[in-house]
Amino acid sequence: MSVGTLHAKVVLDDPSRIHCGNRDPVTGHINLRYAPGHGNASAELFGPLQVYVTLHGRAKTKIWKSNGQSTSIYRGRAPLFHQKALVYDDSFRAHPRDSTNFPFSLFFPEVAYAQVTDDFDEDPRYISRSSQRLPPSFQSSYHGFAHRYEAFVEYRVGVDVVMPRLDVHVNKPGEYEEPVIHYEGPRTTQLADRRPYDWRGSVSVRNELLLPEADRPQGFRQKTKALFGGANFPTYAFDWVCLAPKDLYLGQPACFEVRIKARENECTATLIPEVRLQYFHVEIEAHTDVRADRTIFRCPESEGNYTVFEAAGAIDNTGPFSKANENTKIVNTQPLGSGRIGGFSSSFATYNISHSYSARIKFGFELTGKVKEVDKEYGVIVHPPLEFAQPPPPVAEAGPSVAGPSSLPPDAGGKAPDLPPYEPLPAYEATPSGKN
Questions:
Q1: Which of 14, 252, 279, 369 has the most CB atoms in a 10 Å sphere around its CB?
Q2: Mean pLDDT throughout 94-114?
Q3: In whole angstroms, how large is the CA radius of gyration of the chain?
Q4: Domain ranges within the chain, ordered by starting residue
Q5: Matching CATH topology for 4-189 and 197-402?
Q6: Could you tell me the CA-to-CA distances from 57 to 76, 166, 205, 322, 374 in Å, in that order?
Q7: Which residues of 352-391 are buried (b: 16+ CB within 10 A; e: fewer)?
Q8: What does the buried/exposed string (b/e) look like for 69-101 if buried means 16 or more CB atoms within 10 Å of the residue's CB?
């Protein structure tokens, strides 16, 4: 007959914290509460006790494939690691309804080392070898016209309680009740040494506003002639270049530079117009490839594209391009991960998930009352946060900083301020324990 029940609960010190790398500890405590069995309402519990804490991670995918008549579901399972730590091993005494806490401090491993039993094809988009870097926490549920999948990378903390030679029932969190730990890769110690994307073009305008005011068309007849191209107006043309970063960092703004230079051999206007950078818009789009356990011929696959960050860039000043500012504008976004759509992880690849990004930038030059719009999309790498935040160039219209200074070490007594607060996503669909 059982002497009672020990209710075990895992309590994290900071459930919303994003832990960066294997030097950022996961801290908390195990709470044990004793409830005596029937007929033993006042009996105390005494005996040897062992309390273990487990930290484990996995990457899972679920892919739907339809042939128009039926739908098949394929799964990809990739355990990443499983480690167990003893936090208490001694005699234990508890009175009915007593509650006792056992603190713990855990560290993520440097690499994934678990044995993967699912069979995955060799594919350059994925990493199939063991001892790979741990991927960041991730969750995506996509249902498009031709693709449907669910995918996640998750890390959880569990508990095991043992009282040898005593008939004690242990009530502990189940697999989907264990608290989730939010992980990101180790902080980046230095900026990537890659040249920015060099995007170039030209703009040319030809209209009556390039004439001195006294020479502009007057009256209905002259304006109608000008409207249908009968007038010979002067031309103003300029080259532009946009320097766009190929490497982005979570918690840091993305910084862009736009320059212009007049094309003197094509300019016939004696009146030089003001050229302004009217707006600068940035979107970060994620591209996720997922795959499942190999079937007879190949691994079933799916993919999805979706926007994770969208913001208007803050331009350093609202004045026109001029010699005073070296015909250059500096543009900063708000810190990445704090956009209107939500936070996101760094770029990564693992056994069954490959996650990459592209940036889409759109801006407009305003001159002679017209706006010339240009846009471009290009690939970027999103890195984990910097070890120490790099201050962006000053931006007059940016207003108060969205993210605070991030030079504090992770154990400085507060949250890492350069990372956005974690916003939990909808739970992944639970699967029977025999199909993990």
A1: 252
A2: 93
A3: 30
A4: 4-189, 197-402
A5: yes
A6: 14, 32, 58, 55, 44
A7: bbbbbbebebebbbbbbeeebeeeeeeebebbbbbeebee
A8: eeeeebbbbbbbbeeeeebbeeebebeeeeebe
Three-state DSSP state, 117 = coil
Query: Is 170 a residue whose pLDDT tops 90?
Result: yes
Q: What is the DSSP letter of 133?
A: B
Q: pTM for this structure?
A: 0.81
CB 13 within 8 A of CB 176: no
- CATH code given to domain 4-189: 2.60.40.640
Q: How far apart are alpha carbons 7 and 151 in whole angstroms?
A: 32
Q: Which of 191, 173, 139 is nearest to 32 (CA)?
A: 173
Residues 419 and 18 sit within 8 Å (Cβ to Cβ): yes
Q: What mean pLDDT, rounded, does the chain reach?
A: 84
Pick from 350, 15, 290, 299: nearest CA to 140: 290
CA-to-CA dists, residue 265 to 148, 361, 365, angstroms: 55, 30, 21
* Distance separating alpha carbons of residues 334 and 392, to the nearest angstrom: 10
Secondary structure of 290-355 in HEC code, one letter for each residue: EECCCCCCCCCEEEEEEEEEEEECEECCCCCCCHHHCCEEEEECCCCCCCCCCCCCCCEECCCEEE
What count of other Cβ atoms lies within 10 Å of the Cβ of residue 145? 5
User: Which tokens in the block code for residue 25?
Assistant: 């500890």
Distance CA 358, CA 375 (A): 13
Q: What average pLDDT does the segment 148-155 reach?
A: 95
Q: What is the CATH number of domain 197-402?
A: 2.60.40
* Residue 88 to residue 27: CA distance in whole angstroms: 15
Q: Please name the residues in contact with 385: beta carbons below 8 A apart, sequence gap of 6 or more.
A: 20, 184, 187, 188, 249, 250, 251, 252, 406, 416, 418, 419
Burial of 326 (0-12, 13-18, 19+ CB in 10 A): exposed
